[in-house]
Write a structure and sequence with these properties.
Its cofactor is Mg(2+). This protein is an alpha/beta fold. The chain is built from twelve helices and 18 strands.
């Protein structure tokens, strides 16, 4: 059977939660392959809202959900999220959740370091969520991480703690902070170990067996392509690769497992935190987009910056991530506008670019080149077929397809799962 990989095609917050929930109802497994609990997915199921940060979106419907080795795991955040869902009537146990025993852990010292760095960075602030994601990935590649499997061997952590403390104590001293309290850290790990270990195992084996049996696997990416540490607007990016290819390395499946790559893209553009944003609107239209789109971060509650759709950026995202088709979300937010603009490229100090250049100075100097289209006055909210869309809305969608060189597979017209126009089924062979 076909697999599907869902990724964000912009700076995250594109409405992946609803689309993943819609697809998860037809999948056998839903898998997270990168990021941490800095990613937020909001699901609206039968009028009830669920806010997820770490758990795969399939968990709400009882679909087997897997956290792959490419994720950095905060065990205390995991416990809190499981308890919150339990309060909403969703039971999470080993039969519905599996966690790779090779996942690196996010520790309290990672959160501390994240905040200390941000506070000391002045104008160089990246705008992290201060949840320790970056420092945890640093320890992973620095070969000093404590992983899920280590929780079953807490009495043997000495050499790893030596490496960890040698690195972090020096950094903490530079910020005027005391050394790591090793005993306290070991107590905290001991207190959470049994909770995490009930879900732990070699998920690469689970996934390979599922693939051999022809089961449908839905890979769920966090953040968006423009936050990819290699392909995004560096340094204002996350600390992992967010492109579809990471589904292989982040789970233990081969590169052919990704299947249909569905890029989630808003009908306009938003981003949270610092960094370049050529089409950002600091006017009444930008305010209107934010209010109508309820643009506040799921994880942090931070207000999102809003602007016109940037076709040049999405075209770039589709290319580097190998997107097969896009899901266009929040089309209804554009209802009632007299005219709509689409960015097709940039003027950078008199030179024309059809992509966003790599250097931050060039990105800051990029002035969008716009194409203007008539808007529409009729509502698109809740539309479930092309016939229910205004003619100008259809023209807008078709023009987006042309400019990003990628077809539209789905159109979302509200947060409700069924308010979706299906153009091409991502799970179809």
């Amino acid at each position: 059977m076909a697999n599907v990989t869902v990724i964000g095609g912009q700076w995250g917050d594109e409405g992946k939660g609803k689309i993943v929930d819609w697809l998860a109802s037809r999948a056998d497994l839903v898998v997270r392959f990168q990021g941490g609990h800095n990613a937020g997915h909001t699901l609206v199921v039968d009028g009830k809202t669920y806010k997820l940060s770490l758990l795969p979106s399939g968990i709400v419907r009882g679909t087997l959900s897997v956290i792959g080795n490419g994720v950095v795991l905060d065990p205390w955040a995991l416990k809190a999220e499981v308890e919150t869902l339990a309060g909403q009537g969703v039971s999470v146990g080993p039969e519905t959740l599996r966690i790779a025993d090779t996942c690196p852990l996010i520790l309290p010292i990672h959160r501390d370091l994240d905040a200390l760095r941000e506070d000391a960075s002045g104008k160089g602030k990246i705008g992290t969520t201060r949840r320790g994601i970056g420092p945890a990935y640093e320890d992973k590649v620095g070969r000093r991480a404590i992983r899920v499997c280590d929780l079953a061997h807490l009495g043997e952590l000495g050499p790893q703690l030596d490496r960890l403390c040698a690195h972090h104590d020096a950094l903490r001293a530079g910020f005027g902070e005391p050394p790591i309290d090793r005993e306290a850290l070991e107590r905290e790990l001991g207190g959470i170990a049994d909770f995490v270990l009930q879900f732990a195992g070699p998920v690469w084996k689970t996934l390979n067996e599922a693939r051999q049996r022809g089961r449908r696997i839905l890979f769920e990416g966090a953040q968006g392509v423009l936050l990819d540490v290699d392909h995004g607007t560096y340094p204002f990016v996350t600390s992992s690769n967010t492109v579809a290819g990471t589904a292989a390395a982040g789970t233990g499946l081969g590169p052919g497992a990704a299947g249909f790559v569905l890029g989630i893209v808003k009908a306009y553009t938003t981003r949270v935190g610092s960094g370049p944003f050529p089409t950002e609107l600091d006017d009444a239209i930008g305010q209107r987009l934010g209010e109508r789109g309820r643009e506040f971060g799921t994880v942090t509650g931070r207000k999102r910056r809003c602007g016109w759709f940037d076709a040049a950026l999405v075209r770039q995202s589709c290319a580097v991530a190998g997107v097969t088709g896009i899901a266009l979300t929040k089309l209804d937010v554009l209802d009632g506008l007299e005219e709509i603009r689409i960015c097709t490229g940039y003027d950078v100090n008199g030179a024309r670019f059809d992509h966003l250049p790599a250097h931050s100075a060039d990105q800051a100097a990029a002035t969008p080149i716009y194409e203007t289209m008539p808007g529409w006055q009729d509502s698109t909210a809740g539309a479930r077929s092309w016939a229910q869309l205004p003619a100008q809305a259809i023209k807008y969608i078709r023009r987006v397809e042309e400019l990003i060189a990628c077809p539209v597979a789905l159109v979302s017209t509200s947060p409700e799962r069924e308010d979706t126009i299906l153009v091409r089924d991502p799970f179809a062979l």
